[in-house]
Amino acid sequence: MSVRDWLFFTTAGLALLAGLVVTGLNNKAQQNVNTPNQGSPAVNVYEQFEVPERNPNPERQEWREEEGLWAQQEMAKWTTIMAILSGFGLVIAFAGLIFVARTYRVAQDTARRQLRAYVTMDKVEITRFAVNEPLEISIPMKNCGQTPALNFRGWHVIDIVRIADKPFEDGTYAAWSTYPLGPGMTARAYLQNAIVITRPLYDGIVNRLFEVRVWGRDEYTDIYGTSQFLEYRYVHTGPVTLPQRMMAHREGNRAS
After folding, report:
1. Same domain, 110 and 132
2. pTM exceeds 0.70, yes or no
3. pLDDT digits 0-9 by tens, 55-104
4. Does 128 share its domain with 13?
5. Whole-number Å distance between alpha carbons of 234 and 123
6. Torsion angle, CA of 220/224/226/230, rounded to 10 degrees?
7. Are residues 235 and 165 in the same domain?
8. Are residues 169 and 218 in the same domain?
9. What are phi and psi of 180, to 5 degrees?
């Protein structure tokens, strides 16, 4: 037998012997655990091989209480943060809803203003002015909007008075103006009972003692069902060159 073979068998025998010893010790320790001796306490051989815990005192009550308190504090902190973030989210969402609602109302109002009918006055003129002839004034009302002016009606009054001697008085609605006024259309009114110009009236107007007045009110409904109106006051005093355009009075002209 060579030295190499002898070393091999010697090493194998020692390893086998060590295995038998360890096996025997394990069996003995297991037997002591399962059937302890009444005279002596059981011994667990594994106690000396236990892996130490990360915390050197895992069973310490104070450590457990501190860990529990720390966990509760952390949970309370994150709960508070989430509540604050949720509150901010609700505020932002509510503000967003208000912004959307206001934007919608502004857009809707803008669309209505752009599309609705707008009736305005267009060159109120004296078309006939001579002694012993009736006074004639053209009163055009034009729809400058993009949609019809429905149920259009109005009244107007024409008079010759001393300057600042008589207030503007309301008239009555005339039957001729109860019809739709389409986009771009013009309604023109004339006197039904014309005033005859006498020599004193003629001289008084030319010399700025009297003034020619025309005033009235138009009402109509737009396509959205909203009632609209136009009020106007026009005057003229001084020499007349036909067709003589009248000037808007300093007050009383307004519209919706």
Report:
1. no
2. no
3. 555 556 666 666 777 778 888 888 888 888 888 788 888 788 888 888 88
4. no
5. 10
6. -40
7. yes
8. yes
9. -70, 145
